[in-house]
Please model this.
Amino acid sequence: MILKIVVIALIFAVLIIYLRTINSELAILASIASSVFLLITVIDGLGEVFSLYERISQISSLSESSLKIILKVTAVSYLIEFSASIVEEFGLKSLADKLVFAGKIVIILLAVPIIESVFTIIEGLL
Amino acid sequence: MKKVIFLLLLIPLFITQDCKKIENNQEIINLNANETYSSDDYKSAYEYLYEATKELLNGIDFSTIESEFSGFEFLEGEDVKNKVLSLITGDYQVSPSTFLSALFSDLLGGFNDFYGYFALIVAVALLSSLIDAIKPSFMDKTLVNLTNMVCMAVVIGVISGLFGSVYQSIINATEKIERQSDAIFPILLTLMTASGANVSASIFKPQVAFLAKGMTIVVKNLLLPIILLLFVFNAISGLSTRYNFDKGKQFLKSTFKWITGFTVVIFNFFVTAQGLSASIYDGISVKALKYALSNAIPFVGGLVTSGFDTVMASMILIKNAVGGFALLAVLFTVIAPIIKLAVFSVFLRFSSAVIEPFSDKRLSGFLSSVADGLGYLTAVSAVSASSYFLTLLLIICSVGGGG
Model:
């Protein structure tokens, strides 16, 4: 599987470099396509990871919501980072920074219930 | 020469006479052994002491302590008075196999409870490691820190909840020991006085007051808040990379050790120095009383002294049985929270060890530092339980009655 991913990545890299010399818009599209294609390639493995987490959430039934929040936060951070790297690759650093900033806000919004519960518990102890 | 032979002939005669005397004395001894100690005499003496003890026990009001000690498993449905009587007669015995099996089932139950939380911590650590694994390549540092902070927050929330329940169980055990000592010590001190240990009882009164109130004040208002602050510092250090409370934690740990050591030294001074000489005074005063009784009362002075001895012996039996009952109660009070603490500590250290190779350092460090804090909780429960235990033992061992 890893060999397949490496080969695909190298092929797309060569293609993007070639397309940059011909047409930069096509190079952007190829860059996005390569990211999507690589993600699709590993989606089966991710499916196994998610089933493992589902099994863990069944064992620790009290914290199913917490696990969901963490998975969402991790997914958001990965998505933001992939997108920001693609945008940065084409010289739009300020846009990439804004994207990362927006991602942080989303993560904080997702994590608010968890942080609230932590402070409530500590307040209860004190 | 004839005189010498005559004297020599007389010697066997003396020896024979001495042997006869020894034989006669042996017969006397044998006769005395047979006359004084028959099995029926033993049985009647036991029954007499049993009846006297039971009568005295029925005269003691246990209603004040019934509510405090009614929930314990070792009572097996009986009330306190009947359990004390069974302790006196030896009918009640704690079976080691039953005790160990109960202990083992508590341990297994504890591990079963923590299994789900262990699975959660491993899952979070794996996610955290996924994020950390690609950090060097292209991920923004602040985004990684934020995601790790969320993972830490989940673990801290879960561990905080577990710590809170363990902390509360220690507070409950400490309060229960305080209530038990408030209930049992007035009865024990009264029994001590009734069994002739007047001086010991007067010495134990302030010590018991210090134990019941002073120790609880120190534990609840100083030691337990220090442990709680330690946990909060650990939690904040885990959430934030910027704020580190290492020096604060060291200060709290050293303060805890000083306070605990000082309290234990003061308590031991109260207990050992004064308690040792008191029993000697009591022994002398009781012997003097018995001498006065037997000589002052004509004809029946000896009988009165024997009756006095019976009452004293019964009181000592009751005092020791009540003390033994209280010892069992304190054991059953503290054993469950301490097992819970031990299981929680093992769970934290095991989780920390499992996730250390692949998780964020803060996560495994947090788990390990919380496990260290649990050691202080164990020390707190051990200090309050052992002080109470030691005082009960000294009261049981204060014989009085010239013993």
Remarks:
- Chain B touches chain A at residues 115-117, 119-120, 122-124, 127, 130-131, 138-140, 142-144, 146-147, 149-151, 153-154, 156-158, 160-161, 163-164, 167, 228, 231-232, 235, 239 (CB under 8 Å).
- Chain B has two domains: 1-34, 60-397.
- Residues 14-35 of chain B have pLDDT under 50 and may be disordered.
- The two ends of chain B are 63 Å apart (CA to CA).
